[in-house]
Amino acid sequence: MTAQARLLGGRYQVGELLGYGGMAEVHHGRDLRLGRDVAIKMLRTDLARDATFQMRFRREAQNAASLNHPAIVAVYDTGEEIAPTGETIPFIVMEFVNGRTLKEVLAAEGRLMPRRALELTADMCAALEFSHRHGIIHRDIKPGNVMLTQNGAVKVMDFGIARALASGATTMTQTSAVIGTAQYLSPEQARGEAVDARSDVYAAGCVLFELMCSHPPFVGDSPVSVAYQHVREDPGRPARSTPRSRPRSTRSC
């Protein structure tokens, strides 16, 4: 990071872009006060124009900051900055995880051995069980929201953000959110109904299926067609996709 890097809140130095998605971009950052690396997630400008969303986003980020678990990416701080165009851009300061998302792991390695897939999913579920006991549902479990550190530890990120998006967001925002997550939607989410902890469990099962088969249980030409399959159809058994899956592993999935 250079001396010319942006500074947020007089404290967080914004560095290189690590990645971006339909909702935000993530930068490597530096907490100058505590002298530690962080990750800074900055929301899209069109989302930032919605004052109600900003309030929900701040509330959900604060709730997520209360989760202290080794398999959950810690949220350190939240804030806002004024963009050159005048909008207030919310940001989240998070634990910096040196590793890859499960999405990147799948792209590089393809399907995983059943035992490894089950071990990673068990760690992911431990994070979800902890958050559920504290009354927080993730709502957007997918390979892109699960990190794997260089030491092989699982870290689940983005707790609460999906709820902020879903609670009264614009139609365009809701459509963008569904496009990225339709392959992991629970049937009740696909129907637009209220969700609870079981929706996260269903999504975790979809992730396990993909880890074992290299593709999610349902695919289609559009988010709507995939969502329809979650509601109306049963997925094929993983053993049909991977001969390495043992019967016990298949039943677990």
Automatic annotation (TrEMBL):
It is an enzyme of class 2 (transferase). ATP binds at K41. Residues 243-253 have a biased composition (Basic residues). Residues 12-253 form the Protein kinase domain. It comes from the Bacteria. Transmembrane segments: none annotated. SMART domains: S_TKc. GO terms for biological process: negative regulation of fatty acid biosynthetic process. Keywords: ATP-binding, Kinase, Nucleotide-binding, Serine/threonine-protein kinase, Transferase. Its EC number is 2.7.11.1. GO terms for molecular function: ATP binding; protein serine/threonine kinase activity. Residues 231-253 are annotated as: Disordered. This is non-specific serine/threonine protein kinase.
